[in-house]
Amino acid sequence: MPERGDEEIESKQKRNDDSVPCLDIIPFSGVVHERTLSKLLKSKCWYVGSSKMDVVEGAYKFNESWQTDSRIGHHDCRDYTNGLVEYLTGEENVLERLGKSGWS
């Protein structure tokens, strides 16, 4: 008897023959780590916008509402980053914009 989701995995494998099978459909438990920086980083740090709210409190509030069940390519660290930036600044899809400017 097929396991639940086998049909979806099989279907994904057929559509994505050259990708790692099923990684983007199997959810896994994630975690949000929080820390306070003593100063801003000098490298790998980009200005993406300003906020009208207290960003520390805003980040805590956003983290409380972030679902930590993750799926690669659908609900992962990139979605978290885009969501947090949008919540704090209103800027949408910031990683896509940064990617076009050669940030990676």
Quick structural overview:
The chain has 104 residues and is mostly helical. The chain has helices spanning 6-15, 55-65, 77-89, 94-100; strands at residues 28-29, 69-70. It is built from 4 helices and 2 strands.
Describe the structure.
The chain is mainly alpha-helical and 104 residues long. Helices cover 39% and strands 4% of the residues. The chain has four helices and two strands, in the order αβαβαα. It has helices at 6-15, 55-65, 77-89, 94-100; strands spanning 28-29, 69-70. Strands 1-2 form a two-stranded antiparallel sheet. Helix 2 crosses helix 3 (77-89). The longest helix is centred in the C-terminal third of the chain and has 13 residues, at 77-89. The radius of gyration is 17 Å and the shape is globular. The N and C termini lie far apart (44 Å). Residues 11-17 have low confidence and may be disordered.
Q: Output the structural class.
A: mainly alpha
Unreliable residue runs: 11-17
Q: What is the straight-line distance between the termini?
A: 44 Å
Strand arrangement, largest sheet? 1-2
Q: What is the H/E order?
A: HEHEHH
Strand content: under 5%
What general form does the structure show? globular
Please summarize the sheet with the most strands.
Answer: 2 strands, antiparallel
Radius of gyration: 17 Å
Number of strands: 2
Number of helices: 4
Overall average residue pLDDT:
78
State the share of residues found in helices, binned by percent: 25-40%
* Oligomerization: single chain
